[in-house]
Protein 1
Amino acid sequence: MSTYRPRVVDAQLDAYAALPAVAIDGPKGVGKTTTAAHRAQTVLRLDDPATLEVIQADPARLTRAAAPVLVDEWQHFPASWDLVRRAVDDGAPPGSFLLTGSASPRSPQTHSGAGRIVTVRMRPLTLPERGTTTPTVSLQSLLEGDGGKIDGESDWNLADYVDAILAGGFPGMLATPPQLRRTLLSGYIDRVIDRDFPEAGREVRNPSALRRWLIAFAKATGTTASFETIRDAAAPGHADPPARSTTIPYRDTLERIWISDPVGAWSPLDSYGLGKLTASPKHFLADPALAAVLLDVDADVLLSGQDVGPRVPRNGTLLGGLFESLAALSLQVFAQHAQAGLAHLRTQSGHREIDFLVHGRGRRHVAVEVKLTATPDHHDVAHLLWLKQRMGTALSDMVIVTTGRFAYRRADGVAVVPLALLGP
């Protein structure tokens, strides 16, 4: 029997064990079943035809089984969601049900489960979860604003981060050789197009057009490019881009199957004198490795700084965008652990921008800039200091995430933290 690899989300699931039903959402292959099965006494795998046939014939088996009951890939039998919801209404005790799925319950026939089934998002493995780094700086501590010492030393260099980007955070692929892992990631994209879209209720009449759009979307990683820009970029050498009526469902379906993981624009309760802010989301796929395989790039291409793929405007290099995506994955997971949210900030003039803003309880905030550099300079911290001037004590801390070796606090108060040293 393989040893269970602990996940950051386990702490949240421990707390939610006091509730009768918890749903674990996320893209295929991130370890939802493994984590849930580690906590379950009965496992019902509804993607298994034999199990599905039995449950369809006698749905009450689902609620009679020994608890905790894991209903795995519940979307293969959507009625299972409502069965669990009704069981909660009827007084199911704490820890009765775990549901895992790779699609969200948005069909008209399925109740949202609000107030009955609590959902938890699960993402690919962060660097500490992969067992490759040991964090010394806690995002939760930064959010609490104790202004404590920032220290630690990492032996990672830029090439190590490139390897981590290309490797991805899907647990089942970690132990495979790099060449085979690339094949598996390419097959993952094929499955998204050929199976996951149809299973989510979205018929794909032109798979090649969807693939071109996905490639353009991957190129937009780390940008706030409009969906019109992405649509136009999806038609290189073609007379016409995909129809808007086609690409809007593409976007919605990507979010429904958890492959798109956008970071929304910050909408503060107080103006802080920031002026008008943009409302556009920042685009990310669930894992930067998916963007890399869609764009067909390897370590040599990324390190060379080549601009490959469709023309999507960006500041900086593609590697910078993919490094930011790797940082976004970590920040999403660690912010969720701290019961905080993640957003980005950009003024409508475009003169000021903060890559990420972690917003937590008690109106605490941490501003984070991600820089593909080992030694940030005064230009790299300028927007952080501008935000501090306006937010004052409402900004608990300022952080620059780097590819460098050391974690330390600058004289101006900005914490410099290599991504390999950042943890929950």
Protein 2
Amino acid sequence: MTSLVASELDAAGVFAALLSRTGEAAPAPRLTATLRALELLGDPHTRFPFIHVTGTNGKTSTSRMAAELLRHQGFRVGLFTSPHLTRFAERIALDGIPVSDEVLGDEWQRVQPTLARVDDELRQSGEPALTFFEALTVLAYQVFARAKAEVAVIEVGLGGEWDSTNVADGSVAVIAPISLDHTRQLGSTLEQIARTKSGIIKPGSTVVTAVQSAAVLDEILAKADSVGSRVLIADHSFGGVSLSRTSTGQDIALRRIDGTTISHTALSLHGVHQASNAALAVAAVDAFLGVSSMSATAVTAALAQASSPGRLHIIGRDPLVILDAAHNPAGALCLAAEMRDWPGVRRVSFILGVLEEKDVVGIVEALRPVASDFFVTQSDSVRAIGHRRLASVVAEAAPGIAVHDFANPIAALAAAREGADRHPGTAIVVTGSITLIGEALHREIEPQPSTLVDPSVH
């Protein structure tokens, strides 16, 4: 473990220290280790109420919008999301801004002796040391407590029941759409995955769920009933629809949990699914505060300023270049639907990089109906599928569609741009993993060398 003093630590230094631990792709199915570290620190996780968010797709966008809504109510808001795109500090934010290097360095130095003590205790009892995400969770809760956050929005890392964020009791449990993903860790059926994710539902809490399949909803309702929690279901208790596209996002309509409506409001995010995510976020905050506490004007102001980098994120206009974090078939289906109807787009070039254990064939089959060609590549992640192997899989899954093979994303993007110059109306979409779009964004917007590899589970 690094011994750098606080003044020498920045976000990258803290990230480097965390990388020495077991990565996010191999979480420990336990809560006791995280609880022990927090206990030694004085239980910082009990010093603020929070909204807990799980699901397969849409949980980061929903979390960001919920935090923005709370911020517009005048609260000091903590936001914990994962993974990050370009800077590790993105994961821990206060009042909409990633925490500073100074805060991260100082708080890391405060928690590091406790983490080392718990590591020793675990090893003595024959258990592995605290993992990357367990230590990160401890750090996040410590940051929020010492910053005197009045409320936090906490996104799970993986699953729910034994995710390290689940050591605290969220008064509102938000469940974004659930589909098959991370099957090695969470189970091979929707029922198993939903059962694990429903583990964030606590006695007396309110559950706010997106539209789910019947099998998933049955698991959510069973868990809520077992602990006495009320359930608010999208398209029944609340809802949101996209009315029209705009140059900066879309115009949406919302129905809130008290039955009142907002007939038109601007949402600064692209994608009809983001209207559903916005409705989920508004319902969660209404359940948390009481619906009468948040005016329609406040909702409108917050959603107009919401952001979710890497989700239908436009980084270029001529040609159109979009980053999207779709990393499973369900996400890819949403992406394909958006590109099919995107104004002015006549063909789509996908720059694709996927991590191991993902359903590559499912992703490609979802994208294939709108794909003009694939520029296959790989990110720097140690878990990235090699570009040559990925190209072979894509060619088999998308017969008749051109597949171009590149060793790195920047070369793939340059080649795709050359192709777009020859074919006006081409949109270039970088997708397949968060590590890939993070790398593309980092090099396109902030062209600096990347020296750390994120062991992201996405």
Protein 3
Amino acid sequence: MTEYDNTGAKDTRSGFGEALLELGKLNPDVVALCADLTGSMKMDAFAKTFPNRFFQVGIAEANMMCIAAGMTIGGKIPFTGTFANFSTGRVYDQIRQSIAYSGKNVKICASHAGVTLGEDGATHQILEDIGLMKMLPGMTVINTCDFNQTKAATLAIAKHIGSVYLRFGRPKVPNFTPAAAEFEIGKAILLNEGSDVSIFATGHLVWKALEAGKILEQIGIHAEIINIHTIKPLDRETIIASVSKTRCLVSAEEHMMNGGLGDSIAQLLVREMPLPMEMVAVNDQFGQSGKPEELLEKYGLETEDIVKAAQKVISRKK
């Protein structure tokens, strides 16, 4: 099992904030818009350093999306910032019509996604956002796993021409991605080679997949663990290459089972290589208020759940 240097727990939203400030220094066309959550989104350093390029729109997320779309006409590269629920569910019509359908170069950056938002409860813990955004034609969908990868992804999407949904979170999680690693949109990352089962994880569950891999190795199961940071476009080649070897797979994500990473992989495999598959995800439920770790356990998103899913899917192999 490959060992990864965990440099300590850091929140992924801070990776976004650091990268946004860096982008402001690198590219004068980068502008930022926020819906009354500057501190929570870690956009305050950008706002202080570039006050003429920061736009506080208040609690008016729909207006924010339309303003951002308009800014692209003048050559600006707008980064919008608010919670994932307000970045997608509240403003889906504006994103669909003014950004996706119109092909605008807007970067929709969303924090506080999933149940690890914690005590704010079901009204804020959106678990459908990846599904909503990946269904929009031309929309790139990215879900990062730690501070370093979020920072790298933020820098990378500024160079990408087209609309992007970048999803990250509030809690501190292990920071294990190399700081110097470049982020390649649409290219999955092989974290550990294995021959018995493929585990495809995204976001906060990537580290838990690595933990699961260690437990599985102790009982003689060698898991191939892959970080799928880009949900769309999906890395078909890496997925097919892995399951061609292991012949079974598990997907793991902090999202609804319907519409998420597992859904995308299942659609790919049913067309090209049907194989036994288990999904570690929230199954048709809203979230609730609670501590992040307690909610991960309640909704079956813990390390042990990935281990059990791997054992179950291996038992289904022919």
Protein 4
Amino acid sequence: MAATDKVFAGSIPEIYDRFLVPLIFQAYARDLAERLARLEPQDVLETAAGTGVLTRAIASRLPSQAHLTATDLNRPMLDHAARQSHDSRIAWRQADALALPFENQRFDVVACQFGVMFFPDKVQGYREARRVLKPGGRFLFNVWDRISENEFADVVTEAVATLFPHDPPRFLVRTPYGYHDGEKIRAELNAAGFTKISIETVGAKSKATSARDPAIAFCQGTPLRNEIEARDASRLEEATTVAAEAVARRFGNGPVEGRIQAHVIAAIC
């Protein structure tokens, strides 16, 4: 993982929330929140909460007496998330998922929405989730399937690569779409002490009002932006335009629709 893969700063959080969340995250947040709600937990921890799309989905499904602690390593993302919700049941806290500042066996459920791919040490992140779970507690998280199963991200990656053929930006392939091997995930959960593990592949459709929306979402609302600007800061708008044109060629002008796919993992403590 490159050092810039975890940098969600500047205007990225706002663009991420405005364009990327409705494009690819909302459907999976609803899915994960519904799975969590069926467990009827009283004390929930969310790691890598980002701009809070899963946080809000969970909170809308929890009973009034339940409590949710939402954490993220990245302060700008967490601050943006906190501004979107005024639910008194949610506590916002900056925290590293690999070194959680909570006592052992505190939570009924630990949830993570497309965050474990960013953990530099996956097994340590899983160990921490297991440490803070009560006996019988659940660790619920999701990860993207390979990039070829996620069409907008794939098209944008290939389009941007044409601008930098000798050093193509590979953030999307390397990190968010780079941790899709179910057997590897299962083995790393086993190494962290989890033994009861289920992995379900869930497909969905990603929709946008225009081809430019996915281009902005990925080129300007993720750390792909950092990679583009590191190569030539003056070419960010050009990269966005090239990506939008590629999406339009593949999916048409006007509203566009592409396939997305992810794995949903449940592990019992």
